[in-house]
Structure formats: C-alpha cells, structure tokens
Fold each of these.
Amino acid sequence: MLVLTRKVGEQILIGDEITVTVLDVRKDGIKIGIDAPRHIRVQRQEIVLAVADENLESAKSSSSAEAALKSLFGIAPAEKSQTESGSGEDEVNPPENGAE
C-alpha cells in the first residue's frame, strides 16, 4: 500500500486516467474528489459489502416463503419427474404400430 500525505487542493494521479483530489480536511474525515472515466467503477467499500450481504440473504429463500408466494399467485407446486425423484432411469416410449 502506498501512503501519501497531501494538502487541500493537491492531487494524486493513478495511471493516465484517474485523478484523486483532496477537497477538504476536517477532524472527522477528509473529502476527496475522484475524476475517472465512466467505464471505471468507483464505489465505497461499505456499500459494496452491504449490497453483497443483502444479496446473500435474499438468495436464501425458504421453501415456506416460496410456497406462500406460489399460493398468493395461484401457482400450483411443480410435480417431480422421475429424474428429479431420483429413479435415475429415463422413460423410453415403445414405437407405435410396430415401427422402429
């Protein structure tokens, strides 16, 4: 990690496309400005982590919640096929009228 000391108005260049400017210094923090091309994402780490946590929680839907939603929308539960039920055998239909 590169550690630098900067004063208000001073800048840090990252590559050829990104400029970080110190805008204000206070007791409780600093204010910086970041100038970067649109294709480069600039995000606050705490927001990225919070969104990732929420996505994990929402992905853990319970079967009771799924059943409640299906009931609400009038969707019948899906029937399990033989493959899903674990028989492991594929159904083969015999040829009709003796044709192969």
Amino acid sequence: MASLRIDHLQGSYLCGILGALMTKSNQMAYITAQSFQATDEELRGFELGAKSINSDIKIIPSYTGDWNDAAKAKEATLALISAGADVVYQWLDNASPAVLKTTQESIFSKSQGSLAAKT
C-alpha cells in the first residue's frame, strides 16, 4: 500500500496563470462543492497564479454543496457569468460536464477543467 498527496496549489497556480492570460474582464470564477483544505488550497493556487500575471484580477468562489448535482453546477456557473466572470475553473465530480457545457454555450466565457473533468 502507498499513499498519495496531491499538491493542489501547484496545479491550480498554473491554471490561474492561463486564466489570467485569457480573461478580458479581470473576473474569474472557481466552482467546487465544499470548502475544505484541498479545495481551499486549489482556490489559493488559482488566485496566486492569476495575480502573478495581473494583480487586479478578482476570483469569485462558489460552492454548490454537491459534487454531482448538474443543475446546481449549471445554476452556479450562470450566476458567475452574470456577475462578470469570463474564466471558470471548477473542481466537481459528475457535475463537471454541466460547468463545461454552460461555459461553452456562453460566447463570453472560457472554461478550464480540473482533475474531475477527465473524459
């Protein structure tokens, strides 16, 4: 048996850099189900990466309360886009495709997946 520890901050830092290079509004979003150590580290990495490119970028976090509820994920995504976010980074499970589809349907949004968005 072996254990694995993923450094969520490092991976999301790179996504923050990429998002910062893509955003036109300087507002980016992070969607996940719950706040706990790993998701907080990922949010922090995303923010640090984005702000390393542009210190004026604002990261808007959103918590759906459910890793798998596609309707909640879509609703949260639409709310974030309405609030001005044009880059959406998410960490969900079965609800991931709803975030990706919703951002793709919006002509003003760009979408980045996370580990849970594997196909």
Amino acid sequence: MAKETHKSCRAGRSVVIATSLWLMAGTGFAATASTSTEALPAGHAQQAQSSKKATQKPAPLIDINSASKAQLKTLYGVGDAEADRIIAARPFKTKTDLVTTAGLPTGIYVANKHKIIAIQKTKSSPKG
C-alpha cells in the first residue's frame, strides 16, 4: 500500500509541475502581448504607430566638402583633430577619400559612411 501512495504522489507532483509551467508560459505571453500596439485600443494603436513613423526620419547627410567643423564633430569618432584634417584635405571626389586622402581611420569611416556624402561643386560654363 505504501508503494501505491508513492506512485500517486509522483503523479500529483507531475500535475502540479505541468500546471505551474503552463501558468508561467501564459503570463509570459500576456506580458509580451500587452506591450505591443495590438493590445491598445484602435485610436491609441494608430497614434503609437504614427509617432514611430514620425521619429524614424533619417538624418540629413553631411557633405564632407562643405560641412563646418561643428557639423563634422557630430560624426562618431570625429574630434577637433579629425575635423581639421578633413577640412584641410578638401575637396573630396568620393567619401572614401576620407581614408585615403585625409587619413581618417577606416573604423571611423565605416561607422559614418551612411551619414556622409561628398557633393561636387559644379563648374558653370561660360556663356558666350
């Protein structure tokens, strides 16, 4: 009879453990669902999505041929010395010239290449 009691205790513990796991999984899902916009009322969900779109506008590209020292210093890894080197080495044909001409470290260039552009000045042809 003691063996039968032991088996029923094991079965009871298994049920308790399974139920606990099921409840924990359910609360984890509920916490995840409540943070998404799907759980918000319709007006609030649209408002949340439109505010996300408004904040995702890309920053304007910085023209390395005409940017001020202060603008250049907003780039990652560019301090006073790097900004001075960039200004002294102008004009650049391409933005990769920052590495080859101005001596900017490759890591700094790679971190900023999506934020910069090298706009060429157009020469006006003489009218005649």
Amino acid sequence: MKGCVLLLLWLLWGFPGNASPAGCGQSEHWLRADGHIRQVRWRSGWKMAANREKMVATCCYHFFAISCYTDFTEGEYCMERESNTLEYKEKVTDSFLKTVSAYANFRTGKIVFGVTDTLEIKGLRDLTSSALSIENKINNSLNPVPAFNIHVDGGNRTVTLEVSKSPFAPYFYQGQAYIRRDSSTVTVDRSLLMDMILKDRNLTFDQLPCKKEDLTFPTLEKLLQKKIGLETLGKDTMTTFDLYDKSYGYTNAGLLFSSENSFPGVDIVRFGTDHNEILARRTLEKQSVLDIYNDACDLFFLFYSSERIEGMERTVSLRIPEVAFREALANALAHRDWSIGNARIQIAMLEDRIEIISPGGFPENMNETLYFQDFYSVPRNPHIAYVFLRLGLIERFGTGVRRILNSYQNEIVKPSFHATENAISVTLPVINQLTDLSPDQQKIYLFLMEKKFAGRQAIEDHCGFSRSKTTNLLNQLMAAHIIGRTGNSRSVEYFLL
C-alpha cells in the first residue's frame, strides 16, 4: 500500500464482539476529498480503488470510526508481484519445496500461502494445520535443512514462510538444487552446482586434484627462467604455485600448464565479411595453456598486422591494439569456467572486429557493474591467475577491462563487453587510424560500421546531409581508401575497407 496511513479509533461504545462494522466487508463506502462517495472493493485487508487519488475513508458502526489517508493505483491490489524473492501459493503442496531450496542457496525470500499468483487472497481453512504441514515438509524433504520462519496472519488467513540464505549450500530437494530466475524456480546447472560445492569446502576448481601423473612443463619452466630467474622447476616450486600438492599430487591448475593438458582449448575461426563465410579454422588444445596463448597471439598477428615499406624502412601496424587482444585472451584463459568439460573459448576473427567468448558467467559476489568497471576482482581460478600474473601475462587483478578500454582511448570505435549467465564476451573493433577524419566523415564511417553495406540515400537520411554533401564526403572517403563501393547505377552500396 502506497502512502501514509493514519488510524484513529474514537470510542468503541456498544461494539459487538465479532460483528462487522456497517459498510465493511466485501465493499465499503469511502468519502473522497471532493465530498463524493465512491464504492471501493475490500478483500481481507487489501484495498483497490477505481483510480489513483488521495482519499479519506470513513467506516462507521455506532461510534466506531477509522480514518485513512493513502494512495491507490487503479486496477491493482496493493501487493508486490512475484519476483526472485517473493512467491505466492494458493495451497500447501510439495511444489513450494523447490523454492525453499532456491532461497536457501542464493537469496533470502518469502512464500505466502493462501494467495493466488494473480494476487487474489483466498485464505487457508486451517492455519495451524497448514503451518505445521509446511514445517514438516521442509524438515523431511530438504537436505540439509535451512533456516526458516513461519508467520500466521489471522486477518487474511494466510501463512508466510521466510527462508534465509544459508551458509551451507547447496541445499537439495529430491537430489536437485534450485535457483530463482525472476519469478520462476529452476534447477541449478552443473557448473554453478560445482561452484557451490567447492565454496562449501573452501576450494576452487583449479585447486582440485587432476588424477594424472608424469606431467611435463617445458614451456612453463622456460618462461619462469626468463621472468624470475628460476633455475629448475621442481616439486617445491610447483607447490608454491599451487600446481602440486604433496598430499594428492598435481592439481587441475598444474594439468592446464602441462604439455599433457586435456582440458578443452580455444577454437579460432577466421571469417570473411560475416559469420556465413569461413576462411580458416584452427583448434588449439592438447598442449599447455601457455602454448595456446602464444599460438593464438601468432594467429592474431597473422590476420591483423600489415607491413609498409617506405624507402629503407619497414613499419608494421596492427588493426586492433595488441594490448587489448592479449589482455582479453589472457583473461579468458585465466578466468573461464574450466569445470564446463566440453566448452572451448570461442574467438571469431572478422574483417571489422574480434569477438572472444569465454565459457562461464560471473563468479559469486561479482556482477556486470563491478566486472566492467574494474571495481574489484574475484578470480574464479586464483591459482591460474597467479601464475599468469607472475609471468606478466596480466598486470594485476582487477585491471583487465580498464587496460582494454585505455588502448582505445584515442580511437573513434570502442570495445564492448557483454555477460550472460553462461558466458562473458568481449568485442574488439578494428581501428583504421581515423583520428584525422572530420566529424561528418566520422558519422558516415560509424554508420557503415553498423550497417556493413548502405546506399547513398540511406547514408544521407541517417546523417542529415544534403545529396551533394553526402556525395562529396563519400568520394573523399573512397579516395582515402577507407570505404569502397559495389553495384551499378541505383544499386550502388558503400562499405568499409
């Protein structure tokens, strides 16, 4: 209910025990501020008015009066809709136990019994029996049993169950753990369930034993010798980097850095003008994650570098900032969800951009705002990330996004980031050294970057230029070898080179 409610009880003279005040019940008469009477529905304490306005309500029986000052919204009960922390159940059935698991696993929430999902209060016949049934069902069906409280509302004849997010997740119902997605309750996927189990044991996936022996580390040893002056890579050094544990042997992190690495690697596809045209494809795996990193960088230089010879000098230029690609690749390798056993990192190399998609959403306590603004870092694989840090492949935790953005700070085009529950993607656009373009030329360039192909009329309409001005700008951009044209006569279209 919106607004401020003031209840004034003036004299209960002659008021019978359980009698209802005249005019109260399924409907009442309310006196509006303008002096007119309007009938308003009343159901078990939830009020609904025909339109939104401030009203003064008077409900009388003998000398009993209630005055109410409030706001109402047309056509709705003043109840919250179902959400990831609120659910309504008309009756007490076993279906609510899935939501109990979800609340205990991820976020404290409430279930109100006696209310339909359309927010109509039906009430429960036997409140005491219903509350006892809810308690017994939780105690007998959830493993382990989470913390919860039950509240009985005799006026509305509803029962509210509040389940607290508990520290011993995962909580299972019939062998399944659940999570709330908006107003729905769904099962937890395998990757997230693994994270929950590891967190309960204060472990990370890269720290678990890999169950393999006789691993070799030639690339890692060579880089450590170069970076920190290490003479030989023995078991003591491996233990220091959490790649080996004296109790159970090599860890998953150790397996990833070994030449015998069996985790899924990186799938790189070189496309033409769009995803329908595949020019080349290479899968990098069954080798150290460091070799995968180096091979991916070699392909980057192959496809996105160009040489120009002027006199006796040769200059090499990159169409995408090297810092941006290396940082995005290193972060994908260090922070992806390695527990997803059949998913590779996807790198799409197109004419105008590179897209890097890393399996796995955000770790717990991390969200899109924190990640993309570099407020702080929550490494999913802290032992892998630490080795990358010591080798100089990443500078320090929590600076990756900032370094990528800084590499484009003087460019017209900018990188973009996107996250879902199952993946994080980074898009690195191609730069063409366009800082000398005029603002009008930049408008055309950015429009063609978005549309890929466009005719003169479409460019003219989008940019708001006259026909002659648009034609002159297009000719200037073609003369500078920034755009090209295809087609004949009225079918001519322009595109970025």
